[in-house]
Amino acid sequence: MTVRVRFAPSPTGNLHIGGARTALYNYIFAKSQGGKYILRIEDTDKERSTKEFEASQLDDMKWLGLVHDEGPGIGGEYGPYHQIERLDIYMKYALDLVEQGKAFYDFCSDEDLEQMSLKSKEEGTPPYTGKWKESSTWDEAKARVAAGEKAPIRFLVSDKDVSFKDHVRGDVKFPKGMVGDFVIMRTNGVPTYNFCNVIDDHLHKITHVIRGEDHVNNTLRQVLVYEAIGADMPEFAHVSLLIGEDRQKLSKRHGATSVKQYREQGYLPEALVNYLCLLGWSHPDEKDIFKIENLKDVFSLSRFSKSHAIYDIEKLKWMNGQHIKAMDVDELLTRTSPFMTNDFYNQQTDDWKKTFLELYKEKITLFPDFNEKMDELLNESVEMTEDLKDILSWETTPAIRDHIKAELEKVSSDYVDTDAFSEWMNFCKKELKIKGKPLFMGLRGVLTGQNHGPDLKVLIPLTPVNILKKRVASL
Ligand code: GLU
Questions:
Q1: CA distances in angstroms from 210 to 19, 29, 237, 431, listed in the order given
Q2: Could you tell me if residue 393 is inside a domain?
Q3: Cβ 8 under 6 angstroms from ligand 1
Q4: Does residue 179 fall inside a structural domain?
């Protein structure tokens, strides 16, 4: 059996991080099984679906590296992959069910429906029970529809318990009576989600359905439809929901919820997928930093967790920082470039930029943070903090300051080279007899105004001499 999984987004908004996680699990599962990952666009909600949202979702998925094997833009044996182009197929299946007595045209008036709904609330019974199918026989119904009457088609729910096996939740059981005869085709010829989703999964030969736990109740109806059309059921894995730290369902209140927002803020796609992957799934070797392409041999449906996954932006940021740290400098140079807003930085040579990026990559969590580091590097004025006052009060510091000041005056180029800076240090050590903390803290205080920071031997040759001069002059 070739594993075939799908991600089936509705293009009614930007790609949500929960959706991205579902897409990711399907994608990795397909890769781990040598299977196919299919993208199907569930665009039957004509009011809310737009081509712009679809394009934006596709673009975000591509950015995350979740590229489908079959679907929009690529095609495949089982197309079309937009539900809106498959309406005839759903109608055919619905009419077959009507003919077999497993579904019926429902000619109830709105008042009838309302009455039924009231009655079901009062009696605690499921709404829209099958007796309403008696309102017309198949032949009568056909004639009424042929004469132009409009009626939805409802699925006739059988009076029995329903159960299915789930890779995350085990045996899921629904006692009979939980659901009334539900609409599968609306009067406008558009199917409902629970119907077309099953028809498509069947026709697309989907073997595993991996999706959010919020769909478990839908699965009850879907199992009934699978049985009615005589199709084999796929295997299910309903993964836990994402919740905020307040244990509420993840929403805008908890921060950015669309992939687009993270992308714009400068998060790395590999960090985002790494983080999303661990929200409800765990690595067999308990690794927390990895690349998705390395999961092929270890990913399995048995490592999903049943409990809700808490979304923690700080953890995501930390992971982003870890991926930046692990990045090679040439890649860093290319990938940071769209985020670097500092004009001075943009005018420097690639060598200068690489030295700067290497120097600060350990200290940042997001690419745009490099701009703040640039501001620090170009800061001309020195803030007289208590720490700096302390350093300046040591008896060794004035000699360092005077030496540095004199040496800076001699530099005719824009930067001090590394050797010259080493000589300055050696002079302080050998001639001024200053060493250890008084030397290093003294130099740092005098040249940067700070009492801690990155390696001076790299930082000082990277800082424009005119900036260094202004800092020292102000002490
Ligand atoms: N279009 C549905 C959604 O976006 C698909 C759910 C499913 O995977 O069955 O929630």
A1: 11, 9, 5, 71
A2: yes
A3: yes
A4: no
